[in-house]
Structures are given as structure tokens and as C-alpha cells.
Amino acid sequence: MPKERRTELSAASVALMLLVVFIHSAAECVNGYDPMTFAYAAAGSLHRLASFAVQGFLFLAGLKLTLRRPSVFSTGRYLRGRLSRIGLPYLVAFAAFLAVYLLTGRLNDPSPVRILAEFFTGGLTGHFYFVAVMAQFCLLVPLWNLLDRRTHPALTLFVSLILTLVFMDHMPELVRLATGFRVELTRNAALFTSYLFYWIAGMTAGANYDGFRGFLRARRTSLTVLWILSAVGDIALFLAIKRGIYYALWADDFHLMTCTLAILALLSHAAALSDSDAPVLRSALFADTDRASYLVYLWHPMTILLIDSLLNRLGIGSRALRCLIRFPAALLLTLAISILWQKLYASVRSRLTNRDPAKGEP
Q: What is the pTM of this model?
């Protein structure tokens, strides 16, 4: 299938990027408020509703794998592309965060082994785990291609759902059974097994994208209502756990359903926006924002650190006010820098690739 631009996928990607920036901008409120207060209920509920962003990005990545796959697939070429578009920007961001953490004393064990472990697990700062998960999915691309060719989509989707539920809840026990060692697995969120269902669901959608898009069109209202009902239940479970009222062992399983419905509802509204040919989707700013989404994801916590430092110097202590300032400031500043960087990089690359040695051009 030709690599045509799907504006609904771009719109969904931009929306997920906004949610990620909000999640980290609002973290101070969620972590600082008393769980018994209304302020915590409000901030925590919004935070919980936004917490399908990483799952959504992985769904879109799986979808694009099958949607845009060439007739002759080269694993080496695919991995080189992923290294260029995902790996190298991550390396630069990791080095910058590492330097800041070393200078500010945030990293208490700066040994080479620790640094390498943080690099490959994405554990240096909270949001880097997504890159580690994406890398695992990319490295396993021969497996995903094999499953797509040799298995029935419904069976693969069902098995991936069961495996995801099992791995999310019982990975430490499974490691102990496989190795004989009791392992304290503190970074299950950085393992692809916790997100297998979203990736496979995205692949399934991409393999029959026209049918999937038709489903989104026909069921937009139903998907929205189902997501709202599920979200209410998810928030109720979240607050009940935080307030010590009831600890639901099945809360994470329920959250998986809420995340899935949120992804489908988001895509259905993005498709409707695309069908309406909204002017915003044809603007240069939207295209630039879409292309810069990954850079914004990597760098926005650095911007938040700078903004928080400024807020501290100004003596602004209200958590609500800090959040109201932090979110738009971090978003706009990171987005502006990311777009500017991409334009400069594209300009330099264009000059290098279009130079004419015969004319003695540098």
C-alpha cells in the first residue's frame, strides 16, 4: 500500500502527545494532594483518563507496521529506519538528561554499569521506558510478520489479550518458575509483554485498515458511550484504591479495557475530523506538530524541570496554579524548539544531499 498520509492517524498521534505532556505536567498535583480531598479526585481522575497515551502510541505503531509494509519487507532496512528515527534521538536525549542528573546530583550511582542499565531499560527518567518497549517490539519484527502471515487475526488477538493479562499480573512468578530464582521485577512496565495486546490489535487494524476505518465511522457514538461508562468505573476503582476503601485486584485488567476503548474512541473522532476535511488538518503547523511529536515526547520533561525551577524562584507554591502554568508553557516551548530543530536539520540535510561536487560546491 502506498505511503499516503492518513490525517486521522496524525490527529490521534498529536492528541496522544498532548496527553503525555499533560500527564507529566499534572504529576505534582496527583502526587502532592491528599487522596481524601476533592482536589486529588479532580486531578487524579484527569490523570487516570489520560493514562492510555503510551498504549495508544504502541497501537498506532503496530497499525503502521502492517498498513505501510512494502510487498518485499527487509528487516535490516526496517531496523535501520527505526534506529535513525527512534534510537538516535533517544541517544541524544539520554545524554542530555544524564548530564543534567549528574550535575544536579540526581543520579546517586553514576557507574558505567548503572548508566548502561538505565539506557537499555529506559529507567533514567520516567518517560524513557516507552523507548525501551518500542525497541523490543521493533527487534521482534520478524515474529510479528510471521504471525501476520501464518495465523488468523482473531486467534492472534485473543491469545495476545490473555498473554498480556497474565504477563501484567504474574511476570515475577513466571520468571521464578522459568529460572528457579525469586526476582524482584520492578520494571514490568518496561517490558513489551505488558503491551502485547495493543501492538497486536494495532497490527490487526492496519492489515485491514479500510474495514477498520469503516468500523470507526459506523460505531463512533457507541465507542464513545462505552468509553465513558468504562472510564467512570475505572476512576471509581482508582479512587477507591487510593482512599483505602477497596483494593480491586482486577483494577489493571479493567484499565486495559478502558484504555482499549479510549484508543478506539479517539481514533473514531480523529477519523470524523479527517472526513470533515477540517482546515486545521491541512495546516503547516499541524504537519510540523505531527512530525515533532516524538521529539516533544523525549524532551518535554526537561522543559518541565526548567519551568519548575523558574516557578520556585518566583515563589509560586500553589500546585493548581503551577500546573496551569506548567502544561501550556512546557507544551509550547518544547513544541517550538522541536519544530525549529527539525526544520534546521531538514535544511542542513537537504543542502548536503543536493550539493554538486562537479561545481565545487561544499
A: 0.91
